[in-house]
Amino acid sequence: MNKLILWLSGILALQLVIAVSLKGEVWQPDTSDISQTIFDFDSNQIDKIDIKDGEQTLSLVKSSGQWVLPDYHQSPVDQNKLNEVKDKLLSLQSGWPVATTQASHQRFEVAENSFQRHVKLFSKEQVLGEVYLGTSPGFRQVHYRLPDQESVYTGELNVYDFPVGQEAWMDKKLLAVKTIEQIQGADFTLSKEQEDWSFSAVNQTQEHINSELDKDKAQELVNAFSKLNVTKISEKKPTAKGVELAVVENGKTYHYRFVEENEDYFVSRDDKPHMFNISKYEYEKFAGAQYQELAKQVEQPESEAKTNTESNS
C-alpha cells in the first residue's frame, strides 16, 4: 500500500513539473528572435523631418549642412535635441504587437485620422520612413504604428519629444559666445591675457586708479555671455536704448543690446536680423555691466593715502 502511494505521488509530481513547464512555454515566450529595428537607414541620410499633430505641421530642414526652421526665419535648430530625437526614432524596435486590428488604431490614437504625432523622415524629397505616435502605456513609452501595417507596438519614446511649436526647436544659445577675448562696455574694457583678465576704465580718474578688477564678477560676466539663453524671436521692437556691450571672439566683434521695456526683456546682436526675448533673470546678468560693478576698492598704505589727500587739497 505504501509503495502504491509513493508511486502515485511520483506520477503526480511529474505531471505538475510538465504542467508548469508547458504553462511557461505558453505564457512566457521568447521574443528575442522577433525584435528588430523598424527603420533600416542611417541618420545621416535624413535631410528633412515633418512633425504633425493633427492641426499643424512643423518642418526641420537641413540646408547647407545646418538644420534650420524654414518657417521660423531660417532659425538654427537645437542640434543636441535633434540628434537625440533621431537616435530614439532609429532605435525603435518591433516585438510582440499590443494589437493587430484596425479597430485598435483609434483606441491607441495611431490612426491616419486620429493620432498624437505623425513623423515623416525625408531624403532629397523622398520619404525614408514614417510613423504614427499615440497614447502612452507607461513612463517614457508610446504606442506606435507604421502606416503600412495594422499592428500597434510599444516603444521607448515620448510624444512630448516631438513638439510642433517652432520656438521649441530653435537653438536657444544661438547668441552665446565661447572663446571670448574682450568685453567692452560704456566705461570699461575687459581683456583676456593668457589665463587672466585685465581691466581698464574709459576716462580714468583717481577712483579708478585706487580700484582693481573683481575677478569673480568678471568671470560671472564672461560665463553669462558663454551661456546666454534666449526664449524666442520677439514680435516687439523695443525703443529704449538699453545696455550696449561689445564682445570680441576669435578676432570678430559682436555688438549686443540688452533692453528692458514694460517688464519685457530683450536682446539683439548686430549680425542677427531679429530681436529676441530673454528672461528677467538672463537680462539682469548684463544690466549692471559697468566699471563700478566690476571693480573693487584697493586699500592704500597709510603713507600713500596721506600723500594723495594732501595733493588733492
From TrEMBL:
<dbReference type="InterPro" id="IPR025641">
    <property type="entry name" value="DUF4340"/>
</dbReference>
<feature type="domain" description="DUF4340">
    <location>
        <begin position="67"/>
        <end position="234"/>
    </location>
</feature>
<protein>
    <submittedName>
        <fullName>DUF4340 domain-containing protein</fullName>
    </submittedName>
</protein>
<dbReference type="Pfam" id="PF14238">
    <property type="entry name" value="DUF4340"/>
</dbReference>
